[in-house]
Amino acid sequence: MDIPEELVEAKRVVELGLLGLPGFAGISLGMLEVDGELFDELAVRIYVEDAANVPPGLPEEIAGVGVCIVERNIEPCGLPDLARYDNLMGGVRIAQPLRGAGTLGAIVEDPATGETLGLSCHHVVGGPGEDFVYQPTEPPQVPPIRKGL
Questions:
Q1: Residues 40 and 55 in one domain
Q2: Tens of pLDDT, residue by residue, the chain (149 residues)
Q3: 3-state helix/strand/coil string of 51-114
Q4: pTM over 0.70
Q5: Which of 20, 46, 57, 106 has the greatest number of beta carbons closer than 10 A?
Q6: Do both 110 and 63 map to the same domain?
Q7: Which residue range forms the structural domain that includes residue 84?
């Protein structure tokens, strides 16, 4: 799905005016979502705290692209958040032994396979071959046992 650069800029400009609205939680560009179902159509996704109480003044389209309203409750974590989450969610601390700690950006689903994946930055999780990621932190390193000592 190609996202036109003029839409990215238009979203950025509109976002600044929406930040002060009560109940506004964010804005992004992505797939159209209606009643929790995703469609292969580009949309401006406006996140609100309560879909039953949508803030007045939200646009119906931006740069010719339709808007969908998505309910999201965003709970900021205090720093440092060293809690362990059995149900992973975006925004929690993860660690990769070769790179240190960072943030799990989001939990996503591969639309082709349906596989649930974690999304983060390369500087947090690394690349191919760096397979181990822990939450919230890697276990303590145990030195190898040497025989004859």
A1: yes
A2: 788 999 999 999 999 889 889 999 889 999 999 988 999 999 999 999 999 999 988 999 999 999 999 998 766 656 677 888 888 888 888 988 878 888 888 999 999 999 998 888 888 888 777 778 888 887 776 677 777 65
A3: HHHCCCCCCCEECCEEEEEEECCCCCCCCCCCCCCCCCCCCCEEEECCCEEEECCEEEECCCCC
A4: no
A5: 46
A6: no
A7: 76-143
The SS3 of residue 127 is coil
Determine contact, residues 28/47, Cβ cutoff 8 Å: yes
**Alpha carbon of 106 to those of 5, 28, 77, 109, 119: distances in Å?**
24, 14, 14, 10, 5
| Same domain flag for 66 and 80 | no
Residue 14 is classified by DSSP as H
Q: Do 128 and 90 lie in a common domain? A: yes
